[in-house]
Write a structure and sequence with these properties.
Helix content of chain B: 40-55%
Number of strands of chain A: 2
Order of helices and strands of chain A: HHHEHHHHHHHHHEHHHHHHHHHHHH
Helix content of chain A: over 70%
Largest interface: A-B, 81 and 68 residues
Largest sheet of chain B: 10 strands, mixed
Structural class of chain A: mainly alpha
Low-confidence stretches of chain A: 1-21, 287-294, 561-593
Mean pLDDT of chain B: 88
Structural class of chain B: alpha/beta
Oligomer: heterodimer
Strand content of chain B: 15-25%
Number of strands of chain B: 10
Order of helices and strands of chain B: HEHEHEHEHEEHHEHHEEHHEHHH
Number of helices of chain A: 24
Low-confidence stretches of chain B: 1-27
Radius of gyration of chain A: 25 Å
Distance between the termini of chain A: 37 Å
Strand order of the largest sheet of chain A: 1-2
């Protein structure tokens, strides 16, 4: 809080002081505050480096000989599978709703976002139950075929690579859908109309014009889906796929080798950063393709009869599999459970805890993102960009690993404040972070800051620098410009960023589990406690509530309006592009104005 | 540099704000703080009974992974009084990391057999669970050794949870103690070839998968049988429990059945040490041991306590006498062997 206070003071003073000196001071202060935020957010990663350093390298020969070949192979297969599936689903549905008009399109337009509300670990549990030999699908199938014993007829098991790819693909495709649809809606009109006029068929327009133009958006969406896949522990482990993330776990939990686990996690982080860099580089190469000079909205072609119906069902399928089936299943289980055992009295408190933690974290993440983005806007040189990237590190490591890195940071702060408070105030502050839920909020902010930062940066890039200049000329200081000029213009960007952060906080499990106070449960920890006992049906209520509460922001997201929708695409894209948001997509957005 | 009145007032407000959250707990008579890797649903009835009997409030936090890291990071400020785990490997790990303190209690020493507690009073087992074999009901088989799980007869017919799960790592470590590294590697290879599906999920999934015809045989903990068959997990699970029969396997040399424990230690910096000891003593009392058996279908550690009829019906349990500490020492090697053989891949 303190640095922010001093910046306010200095800004108000500087607007009356000599211009040159004031400007220098103002910039430095924004940068200092932003640097403080970045340091706090990146601190757990540094703690991990320290932990990893303390271990021996002996682990790696074991890993190289026994674990890495299979784990790397499985991780790659999973990533390629999920990447291809999300790209196909996301791009295909986005093109249908952007370029064509058919029965039910308006509903599908936002319905396609719904799977975003379903956490991967929940969909994995749901599908194992639904598709199990003794579950509803196969039981009905056997009845139809007149087979009694499941031994005589079985569908392939969900607990396989294929099952894992399918399950993850159907909840992660909305990332691609969001980014790509925005791109289709904004960018391609002129060229696509030209192609149509020149007699290109539907397939040719899509494959040869729209798709190449949308490639950067597809790349961003897919890289987001892949980051989610890589950080996922619940679903993949549950379905028996041993990725590198699971190896981090095994090393730490089963062999009590935390330094070793930190080493693997950091190695993975390096790989992730490489992927992000490659993606950025690839995007940079194609930027010329997206600078449509005079874009007009794409005219939707009406699809009638069979083709309209086909388009409808093609868009319905992912919603059905990614949202309707798991939600229907959870609803069914909840009803059965409530009949059998009633509702746990703890549920209302858990809903409150979940919403409260997520809301506080979201608010802080938005403020921090504003500070960092603004510092990047007004600052010069490489420093602001380095800060932005440092602040995005948290998203690139698995949640548990981040939480473990946070522990020494949090307790270090506590010890420092405690000794200071004991000395100066005569009162001990104890574990004021771990004991109050503040540590969980810290973890959320560290992990998801990049989402809101990316969104706000994309928003900033649409605000012409001449507006800043005008505000300054009229005597407004940095803070006043931000507050009364930028903030109103940024509202849609802030809203979409905040909603995405909120949904992610709600779904977050590992850091919540490790860092929450005594006797404090959220929906996710409740769900996990039940699921770990194998009593999934008891977890159904909590799971259903997570989906329902998660739906609210998703629905708001779809209602922010066309302009914000476009930004939502950029917002999501900002997760992956957080490393470089200012020079990537936003320019394309600017073209649309 | 004297404090101005305003600053003093500010300091007072800050101090009271910070201590407010903690003061609430302190004010409420006696309390004890429990950090547990044990699923909260299983332990809650016991804690409620303890509070009812002693008036001591129990505040608990369920932490799956990272219990040791959290307690270690909290250090001297840690509010943790009792640390509870559901695997002796994890429990002994806490002791080795210096996060526990020894206690002397005749009550505990009388109730808990010597092989089920640390010789120095650092840890105590509270209940036992046997690692048993579930087989399809219609199979004509009544006895089995752990070694036979690797027999080619069971090719593609075996269901297991992850080999890296503490319950399985402990079993592999016990096999290591009995037979050494080479034999254990071969055993794991045989089991890998026998797998009917990926080694994942939970023990109850094994029963359900046997019912679903995915496999004929699988490994699971004894108490899940009670939880399923008693109907406590809902009507669906009764069917899973009825679809299997249970064999208490032994190691080949007739040594007995492998058991794991749930157990507890008093935290090194426990602020409520007396209450912590009282909680542990309560958990080995006749009443609590009965609850362990009835509510959780576990084997009581106290010899005088009865097991639940559902569990008694599984047969007489002869515990493998290998000291748990020996098994715990081989945990790391067992985990590496599981990796080496690629059981989970």
């Amino acid at each position: 809080m303190r640095p922010a206070d001093s910046s306010i003071k200095s800004v108000s003073i500087s607007s009356e002081g000599p211009p040159a000196a004031a400007k220098r001071r103002r910039l430095n202060l924004w940068l200092i505050v932003a640097a403080a935020v970045a340091v706090l957010v990146a601190a757990p990663i540094f703690a991990l480096v320290v932990t990893a350093w303390g271990g021996s390298a002996g682990l790696w020969s074991h890993l190289a000989a026994n674990v890495l070949p299979a784990a790397v192979r499985d991780t790659l297969v999973l990533l390629v599978g999920v990447g291809v599936l999300t790209a196909l689903l996301g791009t295909g549905t986005a093109w249908l709703v952007a370029a064509y008009d058919f029965p039910g399109r308006r509903m599908l337009d936002w319905g396609l976002l719904l799977p975003l509300a379903v956490p991967t670990y929940i969909i994995a549990y749901a599908y194992l139950d639904v598709l199990h030999p003794v579950g509803p699908v196969q039981t009905v199938l056997r009845d139809l075929l007149g087979i009694e014993n499941p031994r005589d007829f079985r569908l392939p098991d969900v607990r396989s690579m294929a099952g894992c790819i399918l399950v993850l693909g159907f909840v992660l495709y909305p990332y691609v859908y969001l980014t790509t649809r925005a791109m289709f809606l904004m960018q391609s009109a002129n060229l696509i109309d030209a192609a149509r006029t020149l007699g290109a068929g539907r397939a040719a327009v899509f494959l040869r014009v729209a798709l190449p133009l949308a490639r950067p958006a597809v790349a961003i969406g897919v890289s987001l889906a892949l980051l989610e896949t890589l950080n996922d522990i619940g679903a993949a482990e549950f379905l028996g796929i041993r990725t590198l993330t699971v190896s981090v776990y095994t090393t730490w939990v089963t062999r009590s080798d935390l330094p070793g686990a930190a080493q693997i996690a950091l190695a993975m982080l390096l790989v992730v950063l490489c992927v992000v860099l490659v993606e950025r580089w690839a995007r940079r190469q194609r930027r010329y393709a997206n600078d449509a000079q005079n874009p007009r909205p794409l005219a939707r072609h009406p699809l009638r009869g069979a083709s309209g119906l086909l388009a409808f069902f093609a868009c319905l399928l992912p919603i059905f599999l990614g949202f309707v089936v798991p939600t229907w299943y959870l609803l069914d289980q909840t009803i059965e459970r409530v009949r059998f055992a009633g509702i746990s009295p703890a549920i209302p408190t858990e809903v409150l805890n979940t919403v409260l933690l997520s809301a506080v974290a979201t608010a802080i993440a938005v403020v921090c993102a504003l500070v960092i983005s603004y510092a990047a806007r007004v600052g010069r040189g490489a420093a602001p960009r380095v800060l932005v990237r440092a602040a995005s590190l948290g998203y690139a490591v698995p949640g548990t690993v981040l939480a473990i890195g946070l522990l020494p940071v949090v307790t270090g702060i506590e010890a420092f404040v405690d000794s200071a408070a004991t000395r100066w105030l005569g009162a001990s502050t104890g574990l004021f972070l771990l004991g109050t839920g503040a540590a969980v909020v810290y973890a959320y902010v560290a992990r998801f800051l990049t989402i809101s930062a990316g969104s706000i940066e994309a928003g900033f890039s649409r605000v012409s620098p001449s507006i800043d200049a005008a505000a300054r000329t009229l005597g407004a200081g940095g803070l006043r410009t931000l507050w009364s000029v930028h903030l109103p213009m940024l509202r849609p960007a802030i809203a979409t960023g905040a909603l995405l952060v909120f949904v992610d906080c709600m779904k977050e499990l590992p850091a919540t589990l490790l860092l929450r106070p005594l006797g404090f449960e959220t929906l996710a920890t409740h769900l996990y406690g039940e699921a770990i006992r194998g009593t999934y049906e008891e977890a159904a209520i909590a799971a259903l509530l997570i989906v329902v509460v998660g739906l609210v922001p998703v629905i708001i997201l779809t209602r922010i309006g066309a302009r914000a929708e476009a930004e939502a695409g950029m917002t999501v894209s900002a997760r992956a592009a957080a490393q470089d948001a200012p020079d990537g997509l936003p320019e394309q957005v600017r073209g649309a104005d | 540099m004297g404090h101005t009145p305003r600053r003093k007032r500010f300091a007072g407000i800050v101090a009271s704000l910070f201590s407010a959250g903690m003061a609430v707990g302190v004010a409420a008579a006696e309390e004890v703080n429990l950090y547990t890797t044990r699923e909260p649903g299983l332990i809650q009835p016991l804690l409620d009974a303890f509070t009812q009997e002693t008036g001591i409030e129990v505040r608990s936090i369920f932490v799956r992974d990272g219990l040791a890291e959290r307690v270690a990071a909290e250090g001297r400020r840690s509010p943790a009084d009792v640390l509870m785990t559901v695997d002796f490997g994890n429990l002994i790990d806490l002791v080795q990391k210096g996060l526990t303190q020894p206690i002397e209690s005749d009550v505990l020493n009388d109730a808990v057999p010597e092989n089920l507690r640390g010789s120095d009073g650092h840890w105590y087992a509270l209940s036992m669970r046997a690692r048993v074999v579930y087989v399809a009901k219609d199979l004509d088989i009544d006895s089995l050794t752990y070694e036979q799980l690797a027999d080619p007869d069971w090719r593609r017919k075996l269901c297991l949870r992850s080999g890296q799960h503490p319950y399985n790592t402990a079993l592999v470590a016990a096999h290591l103690v009995h037979h050494g590294e080479d034999a254990t590697r071969e055993w794991l290879r045989g089991m890998k070839q026998n797998l009917a599906r990926a080694a994942t999920g939970g023990d109850r999934d094994v029963a359900r998968d046997i019912m679903g015809g995915i496999c004929d045989i699988g490994v699971g903990n004894s108490y899940y049988v009670g939880l399923m068959r008693s109907g406590r997990g809902g009507p669906e699970q009764v069917k899973w429990g009825e679809a299997i029969k249970v064999i208490l396997p032994t190691f080949e040399d007739g040594a007995g059945t492998h058991v794991n424990i749930s157990g507890a230690s008093v935290a090194r910096y426990s602020p409520n040490r007396d209450q912590a000891v009282r909680l542990l003593e309560y958990l080995v009392s006749d009443q609590a041991q009965k609850l362990y058996a009835e509510a959780n279908f576990e084997y009581p550690v106290k010899r005088s306590a009865q097991v639940d009829p559902i569990i008694a019906a599984l047969g007489d349990l002869t515990v493998d006498p290998t000291p748990l500490v020996d098994i715990a020492r081989h945990r790391d090697a067992a985990s590496r062997l599981v990796d080496q053989v690629g059981l989970d891949q």
